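Next comes this protein.

***
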Amino acid sequence: VLYVSGEESAEQIKLRSERLGDIDNEFYIYAETNMQNICTEIERLQPDFLIIDSIQTVMSPEITSVQGSVSQVREVTAELMQLAKSNNIATFIVGHVTKEGTLAGPRMLEHMVDTVLYFEGERHHTFRILRAVKNRFGSTNEIGIFEMQTGGLVEVLNPSQLFLEERLDGATGSAIVVTMEGTRPILAEVQALVTPTVFGNAKRTTTGLDFNRVSLIMAVLEKRCGLLLQNQDAYLKSAGGVKLDEPAIDLAVAVAIASSYKEAPTNAQDAFIGEIGLTGEIRRVNRIEQRLNEATKLGFTKVYAPKNALHGIVIPKNIQVIGVSTVGEVLKKVFKS
């Protein structure tokens, strides 16, 4: 591995590596920002892996513009691509991310490379999520979850347990959803807090959930299920900092909102899967069998799922799957009213 650092000196990286523990002898560090010198070193070492940290600091002396400019980034990336393809070197380019969460610098950087991975995590949590946004070698929906410990990053093998372990028994406004991150099912908690509004306009706030999706579900609950939500403030979040943005979370969001509105808790062993249509129907979602297996593995005893999605699938033992067609039907069964 050749690690080219334009951000930190070799001494700074050495201090960090000593803190993390054992470092392989095949790991070379090169603190340099001049692209010509970097190319010479790559030709000499012929590494299997090359890491450039970061692309904004590397400059080609042939280009007159400043470091990090569009032309510099384009030229340096093109040179790295040429090196990587001709010498068969797996190359990782590190780029900065702006406050909005987009890759800083030119957008064409994302078009040039084969894969774009976002390494993200909340400031207040120890775990980090590695998410593929573009991938020419596989699925863009895959997710890796790692926890930052004193010895570095450690893979979290059961992320569902992580997101559910602090859930309170008997709390209102909480529902569990089995969401898919690529081919990996993850159970996550959706929380809702509905309170009467003090001012004229009701306030809606979401964290980790799509704002428009939540507004749509609240409109369906009001129109199709008779919940008077127009004079209620609603605060929704996905617990644990995970982002939930697939259609299958709709039913869990609706149940969490209804639970808070009715001041009635949901059963801690129930999970909810399903997309909600504007007429209040529960629509089918993909990979239902994998979702049910994950719920069973974590000890859930009952899952509400779209009736149409249950044909021809093998239902695991020790779990009751209730096929439902409308949101109203789910609310009646969950809250017995």
In short: Residues 70-87 form the longest helix (18 residues). The two ends are 63 Å apart (CA to CA).
